[in-house]
Structure formats: structure tokens, C-alpha cells
Amino acid sequence: MGLGMNMGIDLGTSSVLIYVRGKGIVLQEPSVVAINSRSGKVLAVGESAALMLGRTPENVEAVRPLKDGVISDYKVTEVMLRAFISKVSTGFLARYFKPSIVVCVPTVITQVEQRAVEDACRHAGAKEVYLIREPIAAAIGSGIDITQANGSMVVDIGGGTTDIAVISMCQPVVHDSLKIAGNAFDQAIIKYVRRKHNILIGEQTAEDLKINIGCAYPREQELSMEVRGRNLITGMPATLTLTSTEMLEALEEPINQIYDGVHSVLERTPPELMADISQRGIMMSGGGALLYGIDRMLEAKVGVEITIAEDPISCVAVGTGLALNIMDKFDAISG
Ligand code: ADP
Ligand code: MG
Q1: Global pTM?
Q2: Could you say which architecture CATH assigns to the domain 148-180+253-310?
């Protein structure tokens, strides 16, 4: 591995994080690229491109190259990865030594997409590139020793997908990836407000509601929040106040779908591993794990202790970076 940097990259649907050994998380930016749709020229990547979402003139397009957990545009993914890697490859060592990079990729990935990610890293100057699957990285990052012959279960709720996996000896034994995650929560809130109040709110507003007053389990104290939208009957701007109890109702369906996903993975889990899980509990990661009460809701329904990773948003990136240490223990992407 030499003197170069060892980098772990979490290529998420909402954001990209880069972890460098010895430094920690050195980059965290939205996975968004702004492109001139006429010339195809890339105008901005990451933070600055995200500011353009929903606000671009006709010839500018702000795209999320990873959608629903799959790489929907690998050319753009490559441009984005290169921009981020070169941004963090500064300093004396980076100038002379090429980094070894481990990238955590969506669970559903084709050979072509794998090549695209590898090529992007090589073009950005990587010496060695390894790919690992998200649930494995999430487990390592949350402190689970995955090399043991012991069943561990991780539930990672990201923006586009929820990845549920039972892992033993560095491999996912049973796994599922649902297209219900943070974005679906936002959409459920938009739908609820439209149906109940005849008001259309934007995606950013829905996300604010989810983060501030959203819940998957009744809050001890009722919260409320005032938001703006468009009255669908008059077409005029409107203001309304929503409560956490309404959020519980709005989020019921996607939350139940996540529970169903966990349930079906458990149903397919071999009995010995199931016994391990009921003893050790389930680990949650991803930004969606921060939704108030999601742990208590699952705990009540599944009957197994739920732990939320110490830093659920960066835990996949940390795990990806740490994976380099145990690369010889598992055969990366085939896992
Ligand atoms: P990805 O791995 O897909 O890039 P992340 O793990 O970063 O996604 O999670 C992004 C999702 O987490 C978004 O839908 C975001 O709204 C949600 N999120 C972030 N913080 C919170 C919070 N405090 N409460 C609820 N959801 C949150
Ligand atoms: Mg993620």
C-alpha cells in the first residue's frame, strides 16, 4: 500500500463522503452535477451544483447520477468522482504517491458500472481500486467485527435505498435492497400535505419537515412547524402549520415497508445466524436512521434490540476506509 493516501469513498445516492486514514472524513458533498444540456459541459459538482437543483434555467440541468441506489448515469458519475478525488488529493504525499482507493458501491451494480467506477478512480490517479458493497462497509464502520463466524444484521437507510443485510464471515448471507428510503419519506410527506390540506410543498420543505418534526414513533412532546407552499385550489401561496402527529401518519406507509423488508430478510435467515442476531441486535446506519423513533418502532415490532451507529451518516465512509486493512479477508465485490 506504500506511502500514498488510503482513501475510502462512500458513493451514496444523496452524498459522497471521502475518508482518509489518519485524517478522518475529508469531504462530504451532495452527489449532484450541473451540466449545460446543450454543450454537455460540466458547470459545477457537489455543493455548488446542489444549490442549482430545482432552480436551473432551461439549458442547465442539475443531475443526481446515482438514483434509487443504482448508477443511472455513469459518465456523470465518473466526472463527479474525479472532481472529488482530485479535490482531496492535495499536499506533498499526494503529489508523489498514488492513493489506494476503496469505493463502496450500491448493492445492485452491473459489470459496466463497476468498470466505470474503477476507471473513474484510476483516471483520478488511484494506484489500486477495490469495490465493496455498502452493507459490509456499514457494518465495519459501525464497529462490528465482520470476520467472525457470527451473524450481524445491518439496516442502512440512505436517500434512495434501504439496504438490509445479514452478514457472517465478511459476506452478506441474506440481503435485500428496497427503493424506499429518505427520499420516499419526503415524497410521502408531500403526498400527505397535498391530500389533507390541498397544498403543494417542495421537496426541500418536505425534507425540513421530516428532519425537524418527522417521526416513526410518537414523539414524547408534540412538535409543530410552519411551512409555505402553493394552494392547489386558488394557485396562490399558502402557509400552514403541521404537527409531528401528522408526520407519523404521513410516514406510516414507507415506515411499514421498511419493517416488511427487515421481516422478510429475517425470515430467510438461517436459524443459527438468527440466534446471533436476536442476541446481538440490529445495527442501523445511513441518514434515514436519524428519523426520530425509527429505532423504537423497529424494536417494538421486531422484538430485537436496535442500535443506531455512532455517526450514521459517515459510518459507511469510515467502514470503506477501514476495509483496506482487511481486504485480504474477503474477495471485495463478489461479497
Ligand atoms: P446516501 O447513502 O443515499 O447518500 P445518506 O446516508 O447520506 O444517503 O442519507 C440521506 C438521507 O438521510 C436523506 O433522505 C436525508 O433527508 C436523510 N436524513 C439526514 N438527516 C436526517 C435526520 N436528522 N432525520 C431524518 N432523516 C435524515
Ligand atoms: Mg449510504
Answers
A1: 0.92
A2: 2-Layer Sandwich (3.30)
Query: Which of 64, 155, 211, 251 is the pocket-test mutation for ligand 1 (most atoms within 8 Å of CB)?
Result: 211
Rg (CA), the chain: 21
Amino acid at the residue 57:
P
CATH superfamily assigned to domain 6-136+317-329: ATPase, nucleotide binding domain (3.30.420.40)
What is the 251 CA–ligand 1 centroid distance (Å)? 15
Backbone torsions φ then ψ of 85, nearest 5 degrees:
-65, -40
Q: What is the pLDDT of residues 259-301, one digit of tens each?
A: 999 999 999 999 999 999 999 999 999 999 999 999 999 999 9
* CB count in 10 Å sphere of residue 75: 14
Q: Which residues pair with 199 in a beta bridge?
A: 231
Q: Are strands 100-105 and 6-11 parallel, antiparallel or unpaired?
A: parallel
